[in-house]
Amino acid sequence: MHFQPTEEQRDLRAGVRELLAGRYGREALRTSVDTGVAVDRGLWRELGEAGFFALRLPESAGGVGLGLPEAVLVFEEAGRALLPGPLVATHLAAGVVPGAAAGTAVVTAFDLGGALVAHLGEADAVLGAPGVPGVLGVPGVPAGSPVRSVDPLTPLHRVESPPGDVSEYRSAGALLTAALQVGSALRTVELAVRYAGEREQFGQPIGAFQAVKHLCARMLVRAEVARTAVYAAAVTGDPGEVAAAKLLADEAAVRGARDCLQVHGGMGFTWEADVHLHLKRAWVRAEQWRTAGEAEELLAAELLDSAA
């Protein structure tokens, strides 16, 4: 069996990478960090026009009519570019919240557990809260107080209303978040390998040293294993496979960013390097939609059922 993306899927991925490289490259990323503006409404609308949020909506409803495998490829590229904002929630809200599919509305969700909501101050609606079925705040959003976030581009608020129910969106949300993690993990591999080839010690690139080679090799293995799991879960849609994919992707993103920082040495700890941004975003995403503990519990329950 040759489990590879089709030519159309590869073209889709290449198109999204080209779009993000031109519209949200490193300079734009650093500007976002410096200004603290996580959601660029102009870019959000451009993503909507490109079909980013309406990718899985039927063509009869104004969408692109594709499926989870294609969405995973698109979100992988967004993770690679460290594109900020509630991408997953807005994508899931397409067809539910007016304006979400077109990118004219920014939708966040109760995806962090408890009463924490990301990007609340920038959102037009909150997915999964009581009130309107599946949605709270159309128009408007619940009140909340800011909570310090480890990621400068993922602002958090603690809301006063009861936590919302996103159970119907949890599996797809976890898979798309896993795809973001995979994109970040693959990007940190690129950053580590490039730096290892440029930085010299003792008259040769540090990539010539075995310890650095091993770090980069382990990063690549984790990222590729996670990517395979995410692609497979996108095809099957099985909840257990989605949980496993999220578990592997979180590990690949967090440990990959840490290893990338290690390859960079002292340079990796500076604000000028992008490594810390990947690590901080990976930490936050690891708590979104399905945590490692929740994934492990789901997998354990499936194993028990199969053994019974």
Characteristic key phrases:
308 residues, 3-stranded mixed beta sheet
Strand order of the largest sheet: 1-3-4
Query: Which of globular, elongated, flat, extended, rod-shaped describes the shape?
Result: globular
Count up the helices: 10
* Oligomer classification: single chain
Structural class: mainly alpha
Share of helix, binned: 40-55%
Give the radius of gyration.
Answer: 19 Å
Distance between the termini: 31 Å
Q: Main β-sheet: number of strands, strand sense, barrel status?
A: 3 strands, mixed
Low-confidence stretches: 132-140
Strand residue percentage: 5-15%
Mean pLDDT: 90
Tell me the number of strands.
Answer: 8
Compressed to H and E, one letter per element, the order equals HHHHHEEEEEEHEEHHHH
Q: What does this 3D model show about the protein?
A:
It contains ten helices and eight strands. Helix content is 54%, strand content 9%. It has 308 residues and is mainly α. α1 runs parallel beside α4 (68-80), α4 crosses α6 and α8 packs across α10 (292-307). The protein has helices spanning 7-23, 26-35, 41-49, 68-80, 87-93, 170-198, 210-236, 239-264, 275-285, 292-307; strands spanning 107-109, 116-118, 125-132, 135-136, 144-147, 156-159, 200-201, 204-205. The two termini are 31 Å apart.
